Structures are given as C-alpha cells and as structure tokens.
Amino acid sequence: MSAASYVTPAVGQLITQHSSSGSTQVTNYARIGHAAQQLLPEILQDLISIREPTTLLHSHVTNNSFLSRTLKQHEWSVISNVNLNGYANFDVPLIYKLVRNLNLVPKPKQGWDYKNPPQQSEITPGDDIECIRRVRNEIFHRGNSSVSATELALYFNVFRDIAGRLEIYLGKPGGNFVNKFNLLENCCMDEETEEIYLKRLDDLKRREKDVSEKVHNVEEEISVIKDSVRDTKTKGEKHEIDFKSKIDEVKRTTSYIQEETTLLESKQFELQQVFKQKTNELETKASFLTEQIAEITADLKM
Q1: Is the pLDDT of residue 20 over 50?
Q2: Where are the domains of the chain?
Q3: How many other CB atoms sit within 10 Å of the CB of residue 107?
C-alpha cells in the first residue's frame, strides 16, 4: 500500500480542501491580502516594540516637530493608549511614520519614500521597511482581486526575504516570521475564512478611498478659504461672512473624516482579531497533519 493512499479521513479531508480551494485566483488574493493586513504589520509591531519602549513613545512624538504637527487625530488616539494596548493597534502607515521620523533604524540606501523602490541588492532594515510599506499599498490598492499562481509565488518570495532578514536584525529565532508566511501560502484556507477576509478587505478599501477623497476636498476648501481671506481684506464684511461659512464647512468635513478614520481603525483591529484566531486554527491543523504523516511514515517502515 502506498503512502498516498494510506491516510486517515481527517488528513484526507485536509488534502481535498487544499486541492479544491487553495489554488483559485481569488483565494490567492485573500492570501496576499492577509499577509498585507496581518503578518506584515505584526513584523513592524515587533520591530517598534524593541526599538521604541512604549513608555517613551508619547514624549518622543510630542517633542518631534514634524510628527507633532502632522499626525492625524486617530493616530494620536492610538499613541495615547500605547501603554495600555502596546503596539497591537498600530498599522503599517503609522509605524512607518514613527520609524522614519524617530530614526529607529538606519534609513534606506536611497532614502525614505524615494521615487524608485529599493533594489534587490538594497537590503538594510530601512530598505525592508520601505518595501513593506510599498507592497502593502500595492496590494491594498490593486485594481482586481485575481492573483495568478506566478504572482502569488513572487509576492511570497518577497515576504519571506524581508521576514528572514528582519528575524536576524531583531534577534528572533529562525523561522519566527518566515514560517507564518509559509503556512499562509501553502495551508488550506476554508471558504468561510476567505469570504470574511475578502468582505472586510473590500470594506476597508472603500472607506480608505472615501477618507482620501474627503481629505482632498478639505485641501480644496482650504485653498478656497485662503483666496477668500485675501478677498476679505479688500471686499469687506460680505467676504468675511463667506469665510466663516467655509470654515464651518471645513470643520464639518474634518469631523466626518475623523469619524470615518476611527471606524476604519476599528475595522482593521476587528480583522486582525479574526485572522489571529484563524491563523491559530490553521497552525493546529498543520501540526495535526505533521503528526499524521509521521505516524504513516512509521507504519510504512514496520
């Protein structure tokens, strides 16, 4: 009897699930999406927790002239709760800002946010963080939800390369980050998990786009206000009334942006919790499969 045919029902079910659902292009999209929304942020959360103690973060940010001026309200809220929640709620964009402006790692060879992405030979921690930001944004703003097997392999090669280098940089055990990407790429993703993730990802993309549009509108309103201020100096009270009206409109729009951004943060945290649970389930299944294979191998040798 061959090893392939000598399997328990449970192991056979796992193999069937993997072959029937694990290779679809939509499932591939869910895999890279989960990597961008869960695993890449976890790496950066580990990095910043080592490089920046939570007890020092708020004072360092407050004393940084750029960060103190440019951080958004919801980002201040996350930072204010860091001593309570740690870095678990910090997403890639926020950690990137902090690492860059607090000089927590050496900058990329070409500098931060250079017009071209880091080259394959540029592999400093700063380069890897720059790559994480860019690949996260690329995945998050994809124009379609179909990912070929070739694309999937390319993405996960990048993920593993970055994860392996940052394991060494942070003094992590070998495979601490890399094994999570191996599991995500190869283990079965059940239909329920896939549907939950795709729905949440679509919702997050829509809300982020909406917030971006609102920010653009505010910028346009500010430009109009500046013009109105100049006119007010020469055209009297009528323009002063228009100016106050536009200020009120900007305040309303800003309030909306803050509410939507807070909701987006909440959705991202909810998604993280769902997939932490799913990742644990997948790791349990993978461990079970390994044990079954070991038993089968032992039986065949008898």
Answers
A1: no
A2: 1-22+189-302, 24-187
A3: 17
